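Suppose you are handed a protein chain with no further information: no name, no annotation, nothing but its sequence. What can you learn? This example shows the usual starting point.
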Amino acid sequence: MKKFILSKLTVFTAVFAIMLTGCTNSSTTSTTGATSQASEPAESATAESTTAEPTAAEAKTVEITDIYGTVTVPVNPKNVVALDNRTFETLSDWGIKLAAVPKAVMPADSPYVSDDSVQDIGSHNEPNLEIIAAADPELVIVGQRFASYYEDIKKLVPNAAVINLNFDVSAEADAPGDSLVNGLKNSTIALGQIFNKKEEAAQLVADFDKSIEEAKSAYNGTDTIMSVVVSGGEIGFSAPRSGRVWGPMYEIFGWVPALEIDNSSSDHKGDDVSVEAIAQSNPDWIFVLDRDAAVSSTKDAVPAQDVINNSPALQNTTAITKKQIIYAPNDTYTNESIQTYLELFKNLASSLAK
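A reasonable first move is to predict its three-dimensional structure. Written in structure tokens, the prediction is:
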């Protein structure tokens, strides 16, 4: 009997122990589960934090190299002021909002000129730089006509990034042809980085390279070229290397000049060379920049085509008799964007190939 009672007691004790162990395990499991569940939000928060860190593609700033060195520029900056005539069409095509521009020296059909919300700082001769300060810009793009105001603008807007993407195609430049090509490409790429338009910039550069190759291939290597600037009814000489717009192209395309002179310049109206001297050089082709078409505010301006066609001295030249005359786009003088050169180079290729 005692043995039986002892056995029952042993069994009961064993069962109790098992139950106790089961409860303990269950409690431990529940605690672990709770700990695991409690830790999940922390892990998610960490993951979100990591995701929120800016990646290379989402960087908030970009390092831009301008003519003075490296400048840190905000990506997609607010309140942008642009003063470089080589940038307006590119920025407009990309839908970039601008706070202020020099409307007096821009193509009349630029969307920025007709937009009353875009402030006008005037021409480079008498600019109202205080408008730039009032705009409180994150970025100011200086260049070309406004290059000399770089230091003044930096002082006016010390918290803004100020960049000068200018490049030298003057008579003193070592290689004005390379300067023009590389300058347009580099500035386009820089703008693409700043405004998150890298693909669009790359496509522009690719199209630009293609247009150069096509224009090179179309030129026969022997025809003589005469380039001129027509302004105020007068014909000025745009000299190889230094001449306005056309000069650098003699290097780019290997043109044979019909005429060369000493002490040539990059004057906006061309060098003072007599029409008779131009006629005596008897060029195979005449390339024309119509300055008045871009800047004249009067209705009395004579179109360059009329000036060329009505010049008695030129009528017997090969270029006139064979109708081998090419005109730059009308707005070229105030719109020296990569798009302008694309259009011009395509026209050169198609015309020279005939």
